[in-house]
Design goal:
Blueprint (H helix, E strand, L loop, with lengths): L2 E6 L2 E7 L9 E6 L8 H10 L3 H7 L8 E5 L7 E6 L8 H21 L4 E4 L11 H15 L8 E6 L2 H12 L5 E4 L2
């Protein structure tokens, strides 16, 4: 697997195609639903890989507002924690609200990881699956969150964007390459 590594001031971002449930990190981020009832997509994969203890705990934390983030143990996953956040269901008639809600997902997940004093965090492409947020529109929002994070870097020094689909991974890598930051490609 080839990773694009982008050096921000105080932290590293890595973008690669892979299975989020296999990432050994401080926390992986779960794209949950508001009811916090285990569903499909990333949420379903995380619940299946974490084992049966996650689902009842996840349910007990709902409902969760869009953009909010909460943490649970990772159970059978190689990560230490799971940070659950609820992404917006894309509505093209409300672009400013959608952007603000998606920004909250990334900011609140990153804030929580720092509060938990985790060294690293791995994100999926939040809201780009069944919630239909166009990937190209999510990238400047993510870029803005990371730019802001440079001003108050906490314990999280590595942020991974783990994309299950090659097409989404390519969009992420193309976006981050054009930011004018130091980049390098690394293999496993």
């Amino acid at each position: 697997m080839t990773k694009l590594c982008v050096q921000f001031s105080g932290f590293m971002v890595r973008i690669y195609q892979g299975d989020l449930t296999k990432v050994a990190t401080g926390a992986i981020v779960n794209a949950a639903n508001q009811a916090m009832i285990p569903g499909g997509g990333v949420d379903g994969a995380i619940n299946q890989a974490a084992g049966p203890s996650l689902a009842p705990l996840q349910r007990s934390l709902g409902p969760l507002a869009v953009g909010q983030a909460v943490a649970t143990p990772a159970f059978a996953l190689p990560a230490t924690k799971i940070i659950h956040t609820v992404g917006p269901q894309y509505d093209s008639r409300r672009p400013q609200l959608m952007a603000a809600q998606l920004q909250d997902c990334y900011q609140n997940s990153l804030r929580l990881a720092n509060q938990l004093q985790l060294p690293a965090l791995a994100f999926p492409a939040i809201s780009t699956g069944v919630y239909h947020y166009p990937v190209a529109q999510t990238l400047p929002i993510i870029g803005a969150v990371l730019t802001d994070y440079q001003q108050q870097v906490g314990t999280v020094k590595q942020i991974d964007f783990v994309n299950y689909l090659a097409t989404i991974n390519q969009q992420y890598q193309n976006y981050f390459r054009q930011l004018g930051l130091p980049v390098q490609m690394l293999g496993d």
